[in-house]
Structure formats: C-alpha cells, structure tokens
Automatic annotation (TrEMBL):
InterPro entries: DNA_pol3_alpha_NTPase_dom, DNA_pol3_finger, DnaE2/DnaE/PolC, DNAPol_HHH, Pol_III_a_PolC-type_gram_pos, PolC_middle_finger_sf, RNaseH-like_sf. Keywords: Cytoplasm, DNA replication, DNA-directed DNA polymerase, Exonuclease, Hydrolase, Nuclease, Nucleotidyltransferase, Transferase. One of its GO terms (cellular component) is cytoplasm. It comes from Lentilactobacillus farraginis DSM 18382 = JCM 14108. Residues 653-728 form the DNA polymerase helix-hairpin-helix motif domain. One of its GO terms (molecular function) is 3'-5' exonuclease activity. It is an enzyme of class 2 (transferase). It is found in: Cytoplasm. GO terms for biological process: DNA-templated DNA replication. This is DNA polymerase III PolC-type. Residues 125-307, 328-394 form the Bacterial DNA polymerase III alpha subunit NTPase domain.
Amino acid sequence: MIESHLISDETNLEEILSNIVKLGEELQKPVVATGDVHYLNPEDYIYRKILINSQGGANPLNRQELPDLHFLTTNEMLDDFSFLGPEKAKEIVVANTNKIADAIEDVHPLKDRLYTPKMAGAEDEIRERTMTTAHQWYGDPLPKIVDDRLKTELKSIIGNGFSVIYLIAQRLVAKSNKDGYLVGSRGSVGSSLVATLTGITEVNPLPPHYRCPHCRHTEFFTKGEYSSGYDLPRKKCPECGTQMIGDGHNIPFETFLGFTGNKVPDIDLNFSGDYQPIAHNYTKVLFGEKNVFRAGTIGTVADKTAYGYVKAYERDKGRTYRQAEEDRLAKGATGVKRTTGQHPAGIIVVPADMDIYDFTPIQYPADDQSAAWKTTHFDFHSIHDNILKIDILGHDDPTMIRMLQDLSGINPKTIPMDDPGVMSIFSSPKILGVTEDQIQSKTGTLGVPEFGTRFVRGMLEQTHPSNYSELLQISGLSHGTDVWLGNADELIKNGTATIANVIGCRDNIMTDLIQWGLDSELSFQIMESVRHGRGIPDDWQEEMRKAKIPEWYIDSCLKIKYMFPRAHAAAYILMALRIAYFKVYFPLVYYAAYFSVRADDFDIVSMCRGKEAVKNAMRQINDKGMEASAKEKNLLTVLELANEMLERGFDFKMVDLKKSAANEWLIDGKNLIAPFNSVPGLGLNVAKQIVAAREDKPFISKEDLSKRGKVSKTLIDFMTENHVLDGLPDENQLSLFDMM
C-alpha cells in the first residue's frame, strides 16, 4: 500500500492499525492479526515474481516492488506488531487467534461420503430390468453361471446405493437410442453384466458362450478355449435348430467395482458429438435445472510454460541463469493455478434434498452470465468422493455410424463381428480392390477407428490379427504404456508368445492368473498393482512361480506402467468393425461419412484433380518429416483416404453452387460433391449462410453471393478460379422490367 502511495509511510500505517485495535476495544470485538500469505518460505518470493512478470503490463503489480508475503512465524508476527507494545501484540497475534479458533465447532468443508441423487424405485427397476432381459436371453431358470454373476452384482450395486447411478445411465442411453444414435461405453462399465442387461453397454462380460434366441439353450466356455464369443464358429442350436448367437468377452466384475464391490462406479458414455448437448440437457429434465451443473476444472502452469516464464523473466530483467537454476525456478512455478475451466463432458448431479453449496461454490464459465450452464468452482477431483459426476462425452464414432445408417439403410446392430472380408483388411488391402503400393499401406485400415494410425498399422503388420479377440488385444496394447514397445512386440518377434496370449488388457492378468490356478483375490491384487505401474512384490512373484506361471509373463508384468480396460477395448472394436464393414462393402457411403464427420482439413483442389495430384500433395508433407505442422499432419491423413478412394475408382467433384451442402459430402453417382466448408478459409457459419441464402432464392451474380452469402472477396476469387461460379456475372444486372 505504501508502494502504491495509498499510505504515505510506515508511521501512517502503524497509526491506522492502532486505530483499528482501539475501535475493537471500544466495540468489545476481538481484533486478530492475520497474514496475506502467497507462499510458504521467504525464498519462494522469486516464483511469484516470475509468475506476475509473465502477465506483463496487464497486471498492475508489475509496476511496483512486490512485498514479501511468505507465511510468517509467530515471532515474526509479534515483531511486526511490536509497535502496539508486547502485551497488545501478543493479544492480537496469539490470544485472540486461539479464542476464535476455540469458539468454532469442527467444520468439514467437504462431505465425508458420497451423496447420490434419489430416484424413487431405482433399486426395484434396476433389478426388474436386469432379470427381465436375463430371462429373455438365457431362459428361466437362469444358467448357474449367469445366476451367480447377477446375484453378486445386484447385491453390490443395490447394497451400496449405486442403483440410481445405473438408472441414470440407462435413461440417457435409452433416450439416445430412441432418437437414433448409438452410444459407446468407455472405461470398465462393460465389466458389469447388469449394465449389459439394462442396456447401458453392448459389451457382455460373461465368459464366451452360445445362446439360442428361440429356445434359450446356452453353452459356455469357461476354460479359456475362446477369448470372445464373437469368435465362436457359426452353430445351430442342438435343441431347436435355430442359428445361435455368440457372445461374451470374459471380463471380471471386480475390475469395475473392486474386489469387495463397493468402489463407486464410474460410468463413462460416448454419445454422438451432435447429440451430446441434447444428452446434457436431458439431465435437467431428469433432475431439474437447479440440481445439475457442469464440472469445473482448474488449469495449472505446465512445465514447458513455466520454463518459458523463466526465460522471459531473464530477458525482461537483464539476467542470465545457469541451466540448473532455470530448471529450479521453472519447477517452482509449475503447477500453480492459472485458470478455471469447464469439463467437456462432466455433469454434476446434486440430490434434491441438498444444495450445490453443500459441496462447492459455483460460477459462470468465463464470467458469462448468459451461459446455459453454471460450473462448479472446485475442481471435480476435489469432490469426486462426495457428489455424483456423469461423463457424457461427445465422440465421432456414433455420429459416423448414424450417417452410415442414414445413407445405406442398414441397421448397424445387424452387422456381424466375424465377417471374413472385413477381417481381411487388418492384414491386407486386397478386399478393397487396391494394392499396398497404390495406397502406401500394407493394411486396408486407413480411416478405421483405432486402426488407422501408422503406429497401430505397424502393429497389425507384425501380428496379422484374424479375429475379434486379437483385435481387442491390439486395442489394449496400443493404449497401454510400456505394454507393446519393448514388451509384447519383442515377445512376439522372438516367438515366445503370440498376439493371442500376450498381456493386452488389464483384465487379462486376473483371468489368466485364475486360469493358471492362482487364488482369485490375489489375482485381482496383482492385476491392480501391475495396471498402476507398481510391479509385483516378491512374495506375490513367488506365488506366481509356484503356480508355474511362465517367467516371460512375470517379466512382462514388471515392465508395464499403465493398462487399458478390456471392456473399453471391446466397445471400441465393436464400433470400429461396424465402420469397417461399410468401408469394405459400401465404399462411397463410407467415404462420404468419413469426410463429413471425421475430417476437418482438405486440399480440395488436389482432391478434385485426381490421384496424382493427391499423391504429390502427400509427398510434399511427408518430405517435411518432423517439420510438418499439426495441421499438415491432419491433412495428410485426409489425403491418404482421398488417395485410397480415388484408387478404388471413385472421384471428387469441386464445390457446386447449386448442389453442395454446408458441411456434408454428397454422393453423386460414383462421385462425392465437396461441401462449401471444404473451401480453404470458408468456415461452417458462412457455409450454412450460403445454403440458407440459396434456399431462399438462387444466386444471380457474384455480388449477390457475396452479399447474401456473406462470402469474402478472397473466397469469391477462389471459387472463380476453380470454376465454381462459371456462368455467374460479376454484378447484379438491372433489368428494365425490374423497374416497372
């Protein structure tokens, strides 16, 4: 305050503080001395100085010398207030502080348990929905393996008060499905048979099995004969002759709710990106607008950003530090709160009999008081044990599948998971009618979710997966840390193991160890330790060796840092195979959907000029190597798909002023007509404006297009150069009849 000239000097400051103390005495109110603490130790001063310096002239603190604001000891506080006399200083620093602290009862700013919303009859509805579907699929009475699993799960779910969480998820998925959008599950929710039977996930966690849709006959494989029911050979029911359904992925329930079944379920769902806002708003319908909020996030200073702050401080202050000192200063600034934000998917649900302020303050995102959602001020991780968060994510796969269904009329749920033609693209592009040289890939998986990147295509080239289980392994291996490189890939290369029996997903460890005869609880504990990168204690390793578990398997476990859930991988592969089916058998439908939904960057000129122009554009980006920008790398992926489409005998057409859509590629015979947003620099809003203006009445000139379509001169020039506006005059032509 002295530095800011709000107070003349220290004498003036002491006078003001003395008057405050006297006022407290007159009013018989205790006066307490507190500190304005910004950091713990005096030497931490430099970190705050660096952080404030990074804000430049926008922060007025940069125009003055910063005061020392470390956490003062009692003696330091007494020294600072010694001008009041030793007795009065001790009163306001020590005595009054303790007096107020003693007068306050125990305060718990955060709740000590989970508070879930109430839904009348949730327990009964979850049980009824589960058992109804179970009897429809598996008959009545249920097979023992199904009955035992459901008893275990329902006891855990209902007994721990988790029914409402399941029911919320069921409501959201059911509405999305009713509105025509499939929902993909994430995480380990597919480990729960109750989640499967209530329609939350398509992943069935039971051991691989046949079930007859007519007479309910079942056959289970519990000794590791198969890893997935989708790999079972086609078979007719021995009882009634009906074609049986193969199902089940052998995923233990413990991976979802823990070995004792009391871990709070984390149900994450992938909705279509187009449908996500509707799903978010549906939570307001379910619980009321005053009971749902967006989960808040806290953004902190990243290590590279902190290093940049240090370098800027050196530059601004004319100083030069050694590398070790720069690293120390950067470390001190790393992790400091930088901004608050909004979780893209998390919805917080407050019980109807409680208030959001029982858990957290709230705020408008970016202080925008017109925003549709309010956000929790506390970062969700601070309160996740106390209040329910539902993750309603937006994802491209459900959007793409909806478009594929609309264009083809094929119900994606009827697509088989063992189609030989589809399976062949994971080893060769031959089924697509192209060679490896033509598309510069040894597989046909360009543009297939989970399998299109160069890294994963390299895994496919090495392993040649031929069924669902092996694809599931690839998905798990590609998402894990220290699971493939230097681990499974070497085991496969040297012939020690195959893609079928390396450790691909976290659940594999538990099921493998149980198959080898290890105790189920110990198997679970080993799985949990390995998936978190904590290795395996020596005594557990000894138990594994007693069970004659191969040494390579133990060594592989010890290298792993993170593992992907099998249920998550199973859900991803389900979506990927559906999309791959259209790529193989309905190519133009597939490419129209891919370029409309998944692609953002286009080189429309090269694409319309043909495959040689596209190959040349690809070559130019590849020649840049690591120097290629992120935008160029994204464009390269699009060009690879464009090249493949052209090699398969289809063509692109330049934007058509009379036919093109705003952002969807349209099928026209054996061609795709480019949308308006494929034009460089033409955004979605302008694209929609052009279409809206065209629907009102045809464009009569470039001037008319510019005015009504809000199209800039640069875009008009591009369209003119590429013959989009052929036959359209530059200006509106005034007719004599217009004046009559």
